[in-house]
Amino acid sequence: MAANTNTAWIAALQVSRSTDDGKTFKPLGVIAKGPRDLNAGCLLELPTTTTAAGNATTGKRASPTILAAYEDNEITANGTYVMFRLVVARSEDGGKTWTDPKTVVQRSATPLPLQVYGPFLRIAEDGKTIQMTYSDMLSATNQQISRVTSLDFSETWTQPTNLRLHPDNARMRDGSNSIVSVGERLVMAVDVQTDTSMRLDYVISGDDGRSWGGRGTVFDPGSNNTAISGQMVRIGSYLAVVFLTNKDIGPIDPNAVPAPSGDPAGVGYANRVVFSDGIVRDGRLRWTETPLELWPVDSEWTGAVQLSDKSIMALSCRDFAAYGKIVSMT
């Protein structure tokens, strides 16, 4: 799990490991550290049949090669953003040490603070192309998901492609995303903000992510409520989306520590999960209407990892500590 800690803008993006089913996490390595805004780490273990440079190997590596995509934003001491960046670094020893950080996307914060954030990494169906999707703020009312790819295991990256999940005039802001494969399709879960709601949507691709359609809703908390930070994984043929919401929450702990920098996903959010059977009916997926609560109020951010065909580990943070919980299908 990659998590952020920062004090007076001396931030560290840290990898932690659990050996007791998420009850505790211990530090393993530091991806990046410095007087910058470091956030939204996404880890991807590369196939064991290739090296980091993409050359064939004669056997399994002693330690997996892992890529980490993350936000590495330049910021002043008073909290003013100067430059937004998405960076990918590499570990050849299973996450203990990190090297070769490469800036994949960057944008000046002036004259308008149009962010790039929320990177997600996956390997394409060819088994070698790395895809990184991220939220791309094009204007104050239009935020799309863009994608870059690498054919040499993060040595070089393509220019961004706008996936256009919605019309440019729709006044929608697509935020953090995650993608899983279901048969011959891909399904993306994405946070979306409109003039009237902050909910979780999904879209479907039949061509390995080159084009997307069939947009629908994963979970809508209704007016005056919020659903954010959705992370989707598979459980066998089923889909699970772990997310944060302030709908129908209990009392707020007055001693809880808010998320840093006034991030919206802090005190006042519960961590929950909804499921889909993964079957497309009339172009749509169906999701459970009543979420399962994983952690009550005062959760910060989410994560999810597939453990087997029958279980996942859902992740949450509170007071800068990571917590995991096994969710199983019977």
UniProtKB/TrEMBL annotation:
SUPFAM superfamilies: Sialidases. CDD domains: Sialidase_non-viral (cd15482). Signal peptide: none annotated. This is Uu.00g115600.m01.CDS01. It comes from Anthostomella pinea.
